[in-house]
Specification:
Elements lengths: L3 E5 L3 H13 L3 E5 L2 H11 L3 E5 L7 H11 L4 E6 L4 H9 L4 E4 L4 H79 L2 H28 L8 E3 L2 H17 L3 E5 L7 E3 L1 H21 L8 E9 L2 E8 L6 H6 L16 H11 L3 E7 L3 E9 L6
Parallel strand pairs: 1-2, 1-3, 3-4, 4-5, 7-9
Antiparallel strand pairs: 6-8, 9-10, 10-12, 11-12
Length: 379
Amino acid sequence: MTTDILLVDDEQGIRKVLGIALADRGYRVHTAADARQALALFDELGPPIVLTDIKMPGMDGIELLRVLKRRNPETEVIMITGHGDTDLAIQSLKYEATDYITKPIDDDILDVALRRALERITLRAQLRHYTENLERMVEEKSRRLIQAERLAAMGETVAGLAHAIKNITGGLKGGAFVVEKGFELDNQDYLKQGWRMLRDNVERIEQLSLDLLNIAKPASPKFQPTDPRVPLRSVYDLMYPQAEMFDVRMAIRCPDDMAPIPMEPEAINRCLLNLVANSLDACKEQLGRCGEPAIELAVELEEDGIQYRVSDNCGGMDEAVQARLFNGFFTTKGSRGTGIGLMLARKIVENHHGQISVTSTKDVGSTFEIRLPSIQDPS
């Protein structure tokens, strides 16, 4: 491939003779009598190699070198000097000239300087090619890794969902079996028991569908200024009658006054409801085994936001269970749970740029904490 070369010299004879020598070496030669013409040709053609005399009227070769390097740092500039210009030639190397040759020009020295310039051009091209290939490889590997992670997450989600549906289906089959036995034996107790099993599992299907729809909602909540006590009191008012039905003491603690903070109140209400419902389930399972079962709901101010807290004194979990608690479709309720509630709670809190955590001691109780910032970043 023919390489363009720009020859700059104020002496017409040198331009003529050196131009022929360069053309014989296979270069496409462009000539300029001064720096002004040289810069115009450089801007038009962008030659990778420039040979320029150091001493020229107007802008000299040193200044031309500096301008060329500002316009394209990768340009290879070879300086042409007279015998008395060695100091200027060395100065040009400080400004990143490729090499310098002296007049009268020796063919072998010219060849060495040109070969060095071409080697630098080739090396840069190879390095650029390698870097671009490396970037493409990294991008492709990253894309494949992300795709693999997404497929793995999808597979895990589908497997968990299938497990939850299988549990519900098992409950429906069990209920249908009991109902059939009730009809077969004309046993009202069997009929009532089977009907309750069918009804409970239909409710679980409904709740599973609602939870899946909530998970599929857009991630960005619509924040509005909300008194932090409002969603907590709403959950308390809803769950208190159920707690009283099972002799579970439920209490709520709130400051007398709280400034509104940005949140999606319905989402936070749903999140807190999941936590309180779990605590109530734990207390119901431990009736008669944990003294006086109790649940406490609380909200309090922090330096940069608020903290919700839902605590109970029943059941508790070991560290292995706590580590998996917010994973998709993980449940401690056996066939009675879908494993979506806490996953949904975590998603809601993260969408509010907050944090959710649990501390628990086996056979003692659990405390869930939600921290929400008082200022939401719109990004």
